[in-house]
Amino acid sequence: MIAARRSSLLRWLALPWWTAQLLTGAKSFLDNPLIGSQRLNRMGLHQARARAAHWLAWHRRKKLRRWIDAADREQFDRQGYVAIRDYLPRGEFEALREAVLSRVSPAREMIQGDTVTRRIAVDAAMLRDVPGLKTLLRQPRWRGLMRYVASFDIEPLYYIQTILTHRIDAPPDPQTNLHADTFHPTMKAWFFLTDVADGEGPLTYVPGSHRLTPGRLAWEQRRALAAPKGVDRLSARGSMRIAVDELTALGLPGPVSFTVPANTLVVADTCGFHARGAANGPSMRVEIWAYSRRNPFIIWTGMDLLSLPGIAERRVPALWALRDRFRHWVGQPWRAVGSITANSNATSKI
Fold first, then answer.
1. pLDDT digits over 180-198, tens only?
2. Residue pair 253/208 in contact by the 8 Å Cβ criterion
3. What is the mean pLDDT of the chain?
4. Of 36, 183, 207, 309, which has the maximum CB count within 10 A?
5. Which of 150, 172, 163 is nearest to 234 (CA)?
6. What are phi and psi of 163, to 5 degrees?
């Protein structure tokens, strides 16, 4: 009886926090009983949050149109991504790749099934040591793409990311299942420093799946009502999975596979369905990887103090340090593996 009363009291005390999260990017049907409430979702809660977030994102993008070339904007608006081969002049790209891949840097790794993801922070020290990288990230076209797709005039988080596939005797990589990162528009970008061949875990994306069509909204509603008990764990946490054979009913084509040469840039809205393609054997790809996600219910585009020079390039090390400090409460899947190069095979996890 005492335990039940205590539990009820804690729920009442947490109610303001759970309610406030409805106006943020909080997405887990498991961690917030309001977001996961079947009753509220039958009344349209999840649909209302998705509709509002998408409307606001496109409204912000209208304000950012001046940042992006018309051809790039048209490609994104239609497909949900912009793909540009030979992004840099060949000599400039080769010099940048050599400088990035030869630099020894503190790295972190995370395991997902049979895949290891390695990340190296693009921090103040790297930008100092690799001036070509700083030049790239300051290019008007680059900055415009990042901001328009993200729908915010903010600086993304940047990493040098390495994907190493096919750990022996490991379960499947959950990122090979088509999924949306969350219910609202977000941005991720991949500037490939190495060639990506078929069968080497290429990025895949379903063109047009970034738009909240009536079919997509109905699918979101069905999935929300099935959560948190009737779907897989990652869907229940708000990163909804979809089977390839469900795409036709939503009026969507099959996924495009980015088997591309090095020096290709892909910038995508990862509210659209995407996945890591299958790897047929051990493989490695290295990329400059960008990530931008902000509260989707903010009406303005900028005013982000964390994007200021001197602060922006220090965010990733600070985030890692915070998660290390509070790992018992928030978890820390990114294990420090010492100082290595991005293309090193020196990992005990492969």
1. 999 999 999 999 999 999 9
2. yes
3. 93
4. 183
5. 172
6. -110, 115
